[in-house]
From TrEMBL:
Residues 526-843 form the GPI ethanolamine phosphate transferase 2 C-terminal domain. It is found in: Endoplasmic reticulum membrane. GO terms for cellular component: endoplasmic reticulum membrane. InterPro entries: Alkaline_phosphatase_core_sf, Phosphodiest/P_Trfase, PIG-G_N, PIGG/GPI7, PIGG/GPI7_C. Pfam families: Phosphodiest, PIGO_PIGG. One of its GO terms (biological process) is GPI anchor biosynthetic process. It is a multi-pass membrane protein. This is GPI ethanolamine phosphate transferase 2 C-terminal domain-containing protein. The chain crosses the membrane at residues 12-32, 482-503, 524-545, 635-657, 664-683, 703-723, 759-777, 783-800. Coiled coil: none annotated. Keywords: Endoplasmic reticulum, Glycoprotein, GPI-anchor biosynthesis, Membrane, Transferase, Transmembrane, Transmembrane helix. Pathway: Glycolipid biosynthesis; glycosylphosphatidylinositol-anchor biosynthesis. GO terms for molecular function: CP2 mannose-ethanolamine phosphotransferase activity.
Length: 844
């Protein structure tokens, strides 16, 4: 290896990179697995017992059937008449179930109960059945809608698809309804139109990301309500209301607009239910109203993670009056969101989607006969058993003959044990055998209540076990692929390190000595930066450390600032000779400025750390932002206005610290002032959230965007050329006319120094404009953290530009600024969970 040639070196390097790419690919595909799905759509074969030739000829024949014939076929083979004629699916985006049903056996808060009197009366009278429907992560709209209509759990990568939804091609209820000729109408979130293009006869879609709009976005849905309820030409009406989710994004759960938005939704429920009762009295068909939410929300109004507040979605089934059985549930009963799909499929007589892992909600079929209830459980069991056969090859009828587990005395649930395949096969056959025995007794007119209860229990045992295993299977990650991926990455790193060692041995002695001279005087801050990188890499191996990553960044930022502070104190020089007194005073003045700046950076960092209580484990502890929110919005508004004024004044101040104050610099300073005043005017004139939708607010923001954009592009492209040219012309004039008395500042102005000054101006402009822009996009409570971050960044910039002889190495300064940026990210209330992604500034 010591005599390695250039060709071998190249080959080894390429090999290491290929191994690294393979390892990274293995890790990514294993960490974000794509769950296997059954292709195609369920047909009449789903109403028959699973066998080895499911759907081979049935689906081929059904494809040519017209919708009405297909509907008749399903009703004939399912042996279950549809319980309802029409379905109204009302989706209230972001509504936590505890707002309607309470939490842990306790009723909702008084304000929420008073906001929804009609809905609460339906629950109290037994005409509505409410559930806490547990939503799977990620708790964003698109994958949750898929789960409700298909019964399948999506992958984590569905988060990316949420921003650009594509047509949904897997088996789902919307497609099944379409196949039997249903006419469907949708008003609301346009995600439905992206997922199911061409399925809706009428539709009016609205954008889900314009979160500043809490009023018009729901009016665009409700304006169609009266007309649609008066029509009888639809079978499925979808109403997706976004306003409540937008209220949460803007003001959190405790927003002043939350109660009024709940009242608005309650009024919609009242109108729909009143119309359902009128249609029932006029014998115009039976309509089921299902009120659901796609996910909940955190205290701040965000969502995306897997906390209880985010996964606590609502499933409220409001039935016609004569279908209410009087069976009252406790309002903290829990189901899974995927249970909605098989329940609706069985209630309306269509096949359960192929990839469904949900379980029938038994209380929703309590109006059926015992035979029909068992038939519904049987159909659900057949569908899950087919899915198990696809996931477990050894469960295939050709490999594992399930009838080998049946004994003469009949199987019992307690006897089911062994491998997964044997367990599921045994549980499935237990339920099937008990069902057959009960059916035989019914034929001979024997009233076997105990046998019915045992059969239901056997079906529930199989369904719950199968659903639980399938849900875990959908999110499991292949450990072997993860291990191979990590091993390949480590191998690649070792190869590259070995190559660097070999190259180092081949470098001429003089160059090695130069490198050694550069590397020899390691200082404490340099050692700490490398140590910090090592600490960060090690911490990424623990999920708990990832959840609390903000502590690491705050520690790294404050410690490196403290080391710079120590170095600045040590740079004081009081032991020089009298002849050097002027240079000593100048040096000490610079050190004093650095000490002041670094102390200010440390002070701001400590406030930032306590502003938001991030992470997972200690979010319940008080923080500065919580105290301010409890104190009242007037204090937050004052802080927001003060922060805006200080930010653009600081930008102007730092800009005019530059010695070469050209006209260009003056113009840039004027743009700082104009931008700051526009932001200030926006705050003072459009501070009220409900008024932020008017055209004046939009126009003022557009003007600000134009100023920021034009100024930034112009300065970046022009300033590096203009300032050196002006400097050269100015120096030439002084040399030509007044060479004997050239001022010192003119003597020091060279094209190189002018270029550095232009970069200084560009950096100052970026920092100031970024802070002003973030003041518009961030929540008002984050105005002070933005000011503190602005002070820290400008402080570092000034401290690094005046280091003199004890200048830090550039990579150390870059690392310090990177640490500051990461700490600032978490200081604004962000974390490593999707729930802290703030979309309140969208479309502003």
């Amino acid at each position: 290896m010591s005599s390695i040639s250039c060709t071998k070196l190249t080959l080894f390097t390429i090999s290491a990179l290929i191994i690294q790419f393979i390892g990274l690919s293995l890790f990514v595909f294993a960490f974000f697995p794509v769950k296997p799905l059954l292709s195609g759509y369920s047909g009449s074969e789903s109403f028959r017992r699973p066998n080895c030739n499911d759907g081979v000829d049935a689906n081929r024949n059904e494809a040519t059937l017209p919708p009405d014939r297909r509907k008749f076929l399903y009703q004939e083979v399912s042996e279950m008449p549809p319980s309802y004629d029409r379905l109204i699916l009302m989706v209230i985006d972001g509504l936590p179930a505890e707002f309607v049903l309470g939490k842990k056996g306790q009723p909702p808060s008084k304000a929420f109960m008073e906001a929804m009197p009609y809905t609460q009366s339906l629950l109290a009278n037994g005409m509505a059945v409410g559930y806490h429907a547990v939503a799977a992560a990620p708790t964003v709209t698109m994958p949750r809608l898929k789960a409700m209509v298909s019964g399948a759990i999506g992958g984590f990568l569905d988060v990316a698809s949420n921003f650009n939804s594509q047509a949904y091609s897997d088996d789902n209820l919307i497609a099944q309804f379409f196949k039997i000729g249903w006419k469907m109408v949708m008003h609301g979130d346009n995600t439905w139109l992206k997922l199911f293009p061409g399925f809706f006869a009428r539709h009016d879609g609205v954008s889900s990301f314009f979160v500043k709009d809490t009023v018009q976005v729901d009016r665009n849905v409700s304006r169609h309500l009266g007309d649609e309820l008066s029509r009888d030409d639809w079978n499925l009406l979808i109403l997706h209301y976004l306003g409540l989710d937008h209220v949460g994004h803007i003001g959190g759960r405790s927003s002043a607009l939350m109660a009024s938005k709940l009242s608005e939704m309650d009024e919609v429920v009242r109108k729909i239910h009143t119309n359902i009762l009128q249609n029932l009295e006029n014998d115009q068909g039976r309509t089921l109203l299902v009120v659901v939410s796609d996910h909940g929300m955190t205290e701040n109004g965000n969502h995306g993670g897997s906390s209880y507040e985010e996964t606590d979605s609502l499933a409220l089934f409001i039935r016609p009056k004569n279908h209410a059985s009087g069976h009252t549930l406790s309002n903290h009963d829990t189901i899974f969101q995927v249970d909605i799909a098989p329940t609706l499929a069985l209630l309306f007589g269509v096949p359960i989607p192929k990839n469904n892992i949900g379980v029938l909600i038994s209380q929703m079929v309590d109006s059926l006969t015992d035979e029909q209830k068992l038939r519904a459980l049987q159909l659900n069991s057949w569908q899950l058993f087919r899915l198990l056969q696809a996931q477990l090859p050894d469960l295939s009828c050709r490999k594992l003959p399930c009838d080998s587990f049946i004994t003469d005395s009949g199987p019992t649930i307690s006897e089911c044990k062994g491998s997964k395949e044997k367990l599921f096969c045994c549980l499935y056959l237990n339920a099937a055998a008990l069902h057959d025995a009960w059916s035989a007794e019914v034929v001979i007119k024997s009233n076997n209540t105990e046998g019915y209860g045992t059969t239901v229990a056997a079906y529930h045992e199989f369904l719950s076990r199968a659903s639980e295993w399938l849900s875990h299977k959908a999110t499991d990650r292949p450990i072997s692929s993860l291990a191979f991926g990590v091993a390949a990455l480590i191998t690649s790193c070792l190869i590259l390190l070995k190559l660097l060692f070999v190259i180092h041995k081949k470098v001429p002695a003089q160059e090695i000595q130069d490198v050694d001279n550069y590397m020899k005087p390691w200082k404490l801050d340099e050692v700490f930066i490398l140590l910090g990188i090592l600490i960060l890499v090690i911490s990424m191996g623990s999920s708990s450390m990832i959840e609390e990553e903000h502590y690491i960044w705050h520690f790294l930022t404050s410690t490196i600032s403290l080391l710079f502070f120590r170095k600045a104190i040590q740079s004081f020089d009081l032991n020089k000779a009298v002849g050097d007194l002027i240079s000593v005073e100048k040096k000490n003045y610079t050190s004093g400025c650095q000490i002041s700046l670094l102390f200010l950076i440390l002070f701001c960092g400590r406030i930032l750390k306590g502003w938001h209580q991030g992470g997972v484990n200690w979010t319940n502890l008080p923080d500065i932002s919580s105290w301010l929110e409890q104190a009242g919005s007037q204090y937050i508004n004052l802080i927001q206005i003060a922060s805006c004024v200080i930010i653009f004044m600081l930008g102007i101040f730092v800009l005019f610290l530059l010695q070469s104050k050209t006209k260009v610099v003056m113009v840039i300073g004027l743009s700082f002032l104009m931008s700051g005043l526009l932001v200030l005017q926006h705050f003072m004139k459009h501070q009220n959230m409900s008024a932020s939708n008017n055209k004046d607010a939009t126009l003022s923001v557009q003007v600000l965007y134009a100023i920021l954009g034009i100024t930034t592009v112009t300065v970046v492209l022009v300033l590096p050329w203009v300032m050196p040219k002006n400097t050269h012309e100015k120096c030439s004039k002084w040399n030509l006319y007044m060479s004997a008395s050239v001022p010192t500042e003119i003597q020091n102005m060279t094209p190189i120094s002018a270029l550095k000054d232009s970069l200084y101006v560009i950096g100052c402009m970026y920092i100031t404009f970024w802070c002003l822009l973030q003041l518009l996009l961030q929540r008002p409570i984050n105005a002070m953290p933005l000011l503190l971050l602005n002070v820290q960044i400008l402080g570092y910039m000034l401290a690094f530009s005046s280091c003199g002889s004890h200048h830090n190495k550039q990579w150390v300064e870059i690392a310090a600024l990177y640490n500051l940026g990461m700490a600032g990210h978490f200081a604004l209330g962000n974390s490593n969970t999707l729930a802290t992604i703030d979309v309140a500034g969208a479309f502003i």
